[in-house]
Design a protein that fits this description.
The protein is α/β, with parallel strands linked by helices and 267 residues long. 49% of the residues lie in helices and 14% in strands. It is globular and about 55 Å long.
């Protein structure tokens, strides 16, 4: 970020799904940028989140507040925003990062799996946007709202009907929210990762290789050839984009969904 450390140190970012993968990478990068952080994840991730918070405080000297809950529950997201603002004083950026993926052919998708993915990915992101917007409007100083989209929001993929549908929906919600909140100086964007080395990708690889009988890791590795850079992404690749989008340098960018995929898909 180009802003001085003294100005960024007073800014606060909330990151959901912060214990692992891309969320963890974003937390480390924004701490390096000097932002104080509200980290959010499920109660089962408490040990990982506590370790991350300690690492961040020791290395970067910023303030960190951990909150536990479920993004699909509106009261948990409201409590998240309220707690972080109470503890850290304000809010600058909401990073609605939490998400899940369940791969199934459309007609083989049980309704309970449909509901679970919709609840976490779409409703969870909606609640994060909603309560961040309420707080940012009340503060009257602008701010940033970011959501986790996906390469699957730019192009449908086999056996990802529900996941892809929720990520397309996040793109649409991001565009609408950008129009709603521009007058308040609030920008709304999303990041659309491709194949990133995360626990979620390990889960998807295990599913696909179990279906085909191929060796574990082969499904993920196959994307190296599909990517023009010839490698898989890392959480820090996504975190660099998020760092830019929450900075003052991105003040004139809103309503966009940016691919971070090493050149698999082109707009």
């Amino acid at each position: 970020m180009t802003s001085s450390a003294s100005s960024t140190s007073k800014r606060v970012a909330i990151i959901t799904g912060a214990a692992d993968g891309i969320g963890r990478g974003i937390a480390l990068r924004l701490a390096k940028d000097g932002l104080d952080l509200g980290l959010f994840d499920l109660p089962r991730s408490q040990q990982k989140l506590e370790q991350l918070a300690e690492e961040i405080k020791n290395e970067f000297g910023v303030r960190v507040v951990n909150v536990y809950g479920d993004v699909s529950k509106e009261e948990d997201v409201k409590r998240l925003v309220d707690t972080v603002v109470q503890e850290l004083g304000s809010l600058w950026a909401m990073i609605a990062n939490a998400g899940i993926s369940i791969n199934r052919v459309l007609h083989e998708t049980p309704t309970e799996e449909l509901d679970k993915v919709l609840n976490v990915n779409f409703k969870g992101t909606f609640f994060c946007y909603k309560y961040a917007a309420i707080q940012l409007i009340k503060q009257g100083k602008g701010g940033r709202i970011l959501g986790a989209s996906s390469i699957a929001a730019k192009k449908g993929l086999p056996e990802q009907t529900v996941y892809s549908g929720t990520k397309f929906a996040i793109r649409g919600m991001t565009q609408c929210a950008a129009m709603d909140y521009g007058k308040y100086g609030i920008t709304v964007n999303s990041y659309a990762p491709g194949v990133i080395e995360t626990p979620l990708m390990d889960y998807l690889d295990e599913y696909h290789t179990s279906q085909t009988g191929q060796p574990k890791g082969s499904w993920t590795k196959s994307f190296e050839n599909a990517c023009v850079l010839g490698r898989l992404g890392k959480p820090e690749d996504v975190a660099k984009l998020v760092s830019f989008l929450v900075s003052d340098d991105a003040a004139f960018i809103t309503g966009q969904s940016y691919l971070v995929d090493g050149g698999i898909c082109f707009d």
